[in-house]
Amino acid sequence: MIQAVIWDFGGVFTTSPFEAFNRYEKARGLPNDFIRTVNAVNPLNNAWARFERAEISAEAFDDLFREEALALGQDVRGAEVLPLLAGDVRPRVVRALEACKARPLKVGCITNNVRSGEGAGMARTHEKAAQVAGIMDRFDVVIESSKAGVRKPDPLIYQMMLDALGLPGDACVYLDDLGVNCKPAAALGMHAIKVSGEAQLLADLERAVGFSLLGEAPPLPDPAPT
Length: 226
Known about the structure:
It is a single chain. The chain is α/β, with parallel strands linked by helices. It has 2 domains: 4-15 and 87-209, Rossmann fold, CATH 3.40.50; 17-84, DNA polymerase, domain 1 (Orthogonal Bundle), CATH 1.10.150. Helix content is 45%, strand content 10%. The protein has helices at 17-28, 34-40, 47-52, 58-71, 78-81, 91-102, 126-136, 145-148, 155-165, 179-187, 198-209; strands at 4-7, 106-111, 141-144, 172-176, 191-194. It has a 5-stranded parallel β-sheet, with helices on both faces. Helix 10 (179-187) links the parallel strand 4 (172-176) and strand 5. Helix 6 packs parallel to helix 11. The longest helix has 14 residues, at 58-71. It is globular and about 50 Å long. 36% of the residues are buried. The model is unreliable at 216-226 (pLDDT under 50).
């Protein structure tokens, strides 16, 4: 029986940063998916991984990312990539979160982020940061890589969430837009859903939890008799 839904943030509650990466690459005349290629080299200890674990500053990330890009034949500074991270909020996914809470299910968020921008969604404006903060306040537990010092796909960060929720893996659904981040969740027994789009996310999550996410919020169960 599902008792909790654990969410990634970017690419789940917001449009995927990969779309912004591709627009930037097209505008700069870079190969498609070049930024993702840089991030895939030495993924456990490259500039991106170290930044998300808060091991380096934004200034160091700027230089180190550029070094990694130059090694692959293109000149791209890390400071040019950071503004691309914050996507647009998906209101229907926020409604799905609210429906889960109303059921009630526990809800948690595990996000790989950096100490740059405004908060967990890495927004670059105060307006968008306030919007993201309003979503983050809905969760029972939030684990941010830049604060925890550990990032997905390290299994430890998933176990930290299970411990905080007080639940076994098989009582949880996990959603993430990266398959590599879904695998450790599945290994812990979670029902892992790889998010490729908003409609698919909502359909797969409805099947997993067994109730409508976009209709009226389901009524709370009657209190147990005393």
